[in-house]
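Just wondering, does anyone understand what follows?

——
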Amino acid sequence: MAPAGAAERDARFPLESGQGLRLHNVAVEAAVLAGRKGIKVTLTGETVRRFQGMSAKEADDVQARAGQYAIVEGIEFSDGVISAEIAGAPSPGAPAAARGFVGIGFRLRDGAYELFNLRLTNGRAEEQERRNHATQYSSLPDWPWFRLRNETPSRYESYVDLQPNVWTKVRIDVRGERARLYVQDQVQPALIVNDLKSGAKRSGKIALWVNYGSVAHFRNLKVRHAQ
């Protein structure tokens, strides 16, 4: 999948098929959601079976180490801006803890990567604590969400208005060891991270990420490298 309309420092990936994606524990198919073309990303049947029978803690540990994502081929990213439209919801028969976990990984190299993800059913939950966990930063495999929440509560999560199965614009601005997550057309970031765990100079691939018990949709990925 070659970038469409790519300039020297910019690239666009429509994401209307699985072409140009390298799959890791996930399956990808073309899909239409709310009248817009994109792709649907789900865990493979084998991966789902691996998690069945595990406790929530066991599943979290395995997911942090193994990862479930589709790598976007043909581009290397360090600093700049990643934007896309994403959507998601819990999958049929998902565990009660499923929230519709969908995200974008970046600087992925040798199985380690930075990640911003949304918990799409948390945005309008009737419990404030769940709303406060609508967005999440993690750095996998060493800094999964549960470690960050235990050691530094509320520092790497925040509230933002979200709905499941609704196309949601996300923009990730990465500069050295700092990153900002913007949701929809917000002027101010929904989540600020000033200490990316991979440091200031790492580079790597961009990945479309989904978690166990969730169905993810992606479209219109754009990448602008820092000058």
